[in-house]
Amino acid sequence: MMFTLIQTIRKWLYNAKLRHKIMVTYLLLIMIPLGFYQFIASDKMSAIIINHVTYSAKQGFDQTYSFLSYRVQRIAETTNILVSNTTISEILMDTSITQNINRELQDYSNLKQLLRSMQDSLDISRVILYVPKAFIFSNESENFLPIEQTVDSPCFARLNELHAKYLWCSPPELGSNATHDNSSLYVVRSILDPNNYSVPIGQLRVDVQAETLRSMLKKANVVKKSATFLVDQNHQIVLASEPMTLSDFTLPNSASDAVTMNWQSKNNYYLYRQLPSNWGMVTVIPLDEVVQQSHELRNDLLVILLIVSSLAYLLAYLFSFSVTRRISQLTSRLRDVQKGNLIALAQTQGKDEIGELIQTYNYMIEQISSMNKEHYRLGQEVKNAELKALQSQINPHFLYNTLDLINWMADSGLNTDIKKVVKALARFYKVSLSSGKDIISLREELKHVSFYVQIQNIRFENKIDFQIHVPEELLDNAIPKITLQPIVENAILHGILGRTHREGTIMISGARIDDNIHLIIKDDGVGMRANQVEDIMTGTSRSKISGSGYGVKNVIERIRHYFGEPANLTYRSVPSEGTEVEITIPVTPGSEMPG
Fold first, then answer.
1. How far apart are alpha carbons 173 and 162 in whole angstroms?
2. What angle in degrees, to the nearest 10, is found between the helix axes of 484-491 and 442-459?
3. What DSSP character marks residue 522?
4. Is 0.85 surpassed by the pTM of this model?
5. What is the pLDDT along the chain (595 residues), one digit of tens a residue?
6. 33 vs 35: CA distance, rounded Å
7. Diameter over CA atoms, the chain
8. 261: which strand partners?
9. Beta-carbon neighbour count of residue 535 at 10 Å?
C-alpha cells in the first residue's frame, strides 16, 4: 500500500506541470504549519480560556461573597439593638401593664417608634415583634404579631433547638400560620429573659427584601448563563440571581460539611462558600458556555486559517504564474521549433536561470536560422551548379548532333539548308543563354522549343508536325528555361522516329486551372510501356531507350527547385498510340519570377 502511494506521488511529480507543483508545495508549506499551529493553539487557548473564566468567576464570587456576607451579618447584628434594649425586656416581662390601658398604649407607642426606627436602616423593610396575646396590640399586624404564630414555625423551632443567636429563614420556613411576604427573606431572633437566658420572652423578625439580595448575587455572574444562589442548611435553593425555576443541587457527600469548596459535574462547575449564618452561597457556571467560547475561538482561528490559506493560494498562483509563464512560453516555442518554426522570444529583463534559458534559446534560434540560411544558400548554389552542369551537358549534346548535321549537309552540297540550320541554331542558343537568366517567360520557352523542332525538321525532312495551342494570357508567366525541349526531344527521338514511316505530330497545349498552369505535350509516336515510363521519371538506365530519362529527370528537379511542391511532371503513355506529358507549374507573372 505504501509502495503504491509512493509510486503514485512519484508519477504525479514527474507528470504534473511545474505551476501545479509550485502551488501544491506552497500550500503544503503554509497549510501544514498553520494547521499544526491552529491545532496546538486551540488546545492551549481553550485551557487558557477555561482558566481565565474560572479565575474570573472565583474573583467575582469572592467579591460578591464578601459584600453579601458583610450585609447579611450587618442586618443580623442590627437586631442586637432591639434584643439588648431593656425597655423591650421590661415591657414583655411586666404582666401588670395589661391592667392599665393607658400605660399599655404608651408602651405600644414607644415600642412602635423603636421598631420603625430600625426599618429605615440598611435593607430592612419591616421589623416585627412577636408578643404575648395578652397585649392589646399583639394583632396590630404591622410591627406586632401574637407570639403564638411562632409555635408551629420550623424556623423558630430550629432557632430554639440550636440556641442560635439568630437564624435566616425563607417564607415557607415561617410556617403556614405565620403572616409573611413571599418577596422577603427573614432574620429571626429570640428575646431572652435577662434573669434566665434559657427562657424566651418574645420573638423578633426582621424582613429583608429578596430583590436587594438578588441584585448582590447577580454581581457574581461573570460568565454568560451562569447563576448564583442562596441555599439553606439542607442545600435547597432559597434565592436565585435570576427569577427562574431551578432544580435542587447536591453537594458531594464527602464534603457536605465543608465551609468552602469547588467541584465539577458533567455539565457545570460549582463554587460554594458558607455565609456567616445557616445559609450558603453557590455559583453555578455552565461548562457549555466555557467550551463554547473555546469553540468560538477555534472557529475564529479556522476562519483566519482559511483566509490566510486563500491569500496563500492567490500568492502561490501569482508567483507560480510569474515563474512558469516564461517557461511555458519557452516550451511553446520549442514545440514550434519541432514543427520547423524558428521564432525567438522577446528579450526580458530577468537575469535568473529562466532568463538565461531564454537568452540561450534566442541565441540557439539565431544560430540555427543563420545556419539554415547558410545551408539554403549553399544548397541553392550546389543545386544551381548541378542544374547548370546538367544544362551544360544537354546543350553540347544537341550542338554535337547539329554540327554533325551541318557537316553532312556540307558534304552533300546543301548550302541553302546549311544557312537555315545555322540561323535556327543561333536563335536556339540565344534563347538558351537568355542573358544568364534561369527563368524566362513561357513565350520565350515556346520559341526556344520551336527553334529546336525547326532544326530537327531540317534533319529529318520535315516529318514532324509541331503545333502550339497556348492561350495568350499565359505566355507572360514564368518557367525555367529548357523545360519543354527535353520532353519534345524524347517525343521526336523515341516516339515519332520509332514509327515505321518516321513521321508524326507533336502538340503543346496549355490551360489555367485555379492558380496553376497545365502544359500538355502530346505526340502520336510508338508510346511506352509502364516500366519505360518509370525509368524516364526516375532517370534510371534499365530502359533500352538510351538516355531517354536523362533530360526528363532534369526537368522535374528544376521545376520543383524553383516552384516547390505545387510543380509536377506526369507521363501517360500507351504503346503504339503515343505519349502525353503534363507539366504543372504555379501561375507566376514575369514580374514575380524567382531568382
1. 15
2. 30
3. E
4. no
5. 677 777 776 776 667 676 677 777 766 777 777 777 777 777 777 777 777 777 888 888 888 888 888 888 888 777 888 888 888 888 888 777 667 788 888 888 888 888 888 776 657 888 888 888 888 888 888 888 888 888 888 888 888 888 888 888 888 888 877 776 778 888 888 888 888 877 888 888 888 888 888 888 888 888 777 888 888 888 788 888 876 544 545 655 544 556 677 777 777 888 888 887 778 888 888 877 767 767 777 777 778 878 877 787 777 777 777 767 767 777 777 777 777 777 777 766 566 666 777 777 777 877 877 887 777 776 666 666 555 555 555 556 566 667 777 777 777 777 777 777 777 777 777 766 655 577 889 999 998 889 888 888 887 888 899 999 999 999 999 998 888 988 998 899 888 988 888 899 999 999 999 999 999 999 999 998 888 888 888 776 554 444 445 578 878 888 888 888 789 999 999 998 899 999 999 998 864 555 4
6. 5
7. 203
8. 272
9. 21
Give the 3-state secondary structure of residue 428: helix
For the beta carbon of residue 116, count every other beta carbon within 10 angstroms.
13
DSSP bridge pairs for 19: none
> Hey, what long-range contacts does 326-334 have (CB within 8 A, 24 or more apart)?
326/350, 326/354, 326/355, 326/358, 327/18, 327/354, 327/357, 328/19, 330/354, 330/357, 330/358, 330/361, 333/361, 333/365, 334/361
Ordered DSSP codes for 99-165: G-HHHHHHHHHHHHHHHHHHHTSTTEEEEEEEE-TTSTTTT-SSSEEEGGGGTT-HHHHHHHHHT-S
